[in-house]
Amino acid sequence: MTGRYWLLGGGIGCGKSTVREMLSEAGVATIDADSLGHRVLDPDGPAFASVATRWPEVVSGGLIDRGALAGIVFSDPAQLAMLESLTHPHIFGMIEGLLEDLAPPVVVEIPLLRKRPEGVWARVVVDCEDETRLRRLVARGMTEEQARARMGSQPSRAEWLAAADLVIPNHGDRSSLRDTVTAAVPAL
User: What is the Cα Rg of the chain in Å?
Assistant: First the structure.
């Protein structure tokens, strides 16, 4: 499976971004789809107008208030699907553009299970118990209700694990995670 393109996923709060950063530090090319999602919602971004038109109540000072938008879409699957239909084509297009300049292995952090960019992709899943994820999200400033809503809008831990080609467990401390990531790099 080495030398391929990899999707890095797992539920919110599992440590995907930390793993992506560690892989990047180890010399693996990485892309952060969430940062691309921020860019498409910037005032000059390709999805700004359509999102602002669909949810004008989340526009404040000429910007999309991502927290307000999250409050709407993560509590209603239909609203989330609408947001994804407006943003994902642009995000995937940006990913494809970035891939043109990168040689495999490339790891794309993307919190989606079912949708993937075009081409041959394997999946790395960062695994973490749900209660640990919940604690991490609350520590980041979410209420327990907000954290559970976000977690509930995503695939379950079992679904992520069933889709994995490679699992990176994140049940311990940062040092243990770094050791695990370092050991995983040759498998990419």
Answer: 17
Return the H-helix or E-strand segment holding 8. Answer: strand 5-9
pLDDT of the residue at 118 = 63
Beta bridge partners of 63: 60
Please answer whether residues 87 and 99 qualify as being in contact, where contact means their C-beta atoms are separated by less than 8 angstroms.
no
Assign domain 5-35+89-187 to its CATH architecture: 3-Layer(aba) Sandwich (3.40)
Count CB neighbours of 143 within 10 A.
Answer: 10
pLDDT digits (tens, 9 = 90+) for 5-53: 899 999 999 999 999 999 999 999 999 999 999 999 999 999 999 999 9
Q: What angle do CA 145, 151, 153 make, to 5 degrees?
A: 105
At residue 163, what is the residue type? A
Q: If DSSP codes are grouped into helix, strand and coil, which group holds residue 6?
A: strand
Q: Which parts of the chain sit beneath pLDDT 50?
A: 1-2
Provide the 8-state DSSP code for 171: -
d(CA 166, CA 89): 27
Strand 29-32 versus strand 106-109 pairing type: parallel
Bridge partner residues of 166 (DSSP): 124
Nearest to 140 by CA among 9, 55, 17: 17
Could you tell me the pTM of the whole model? 0.85
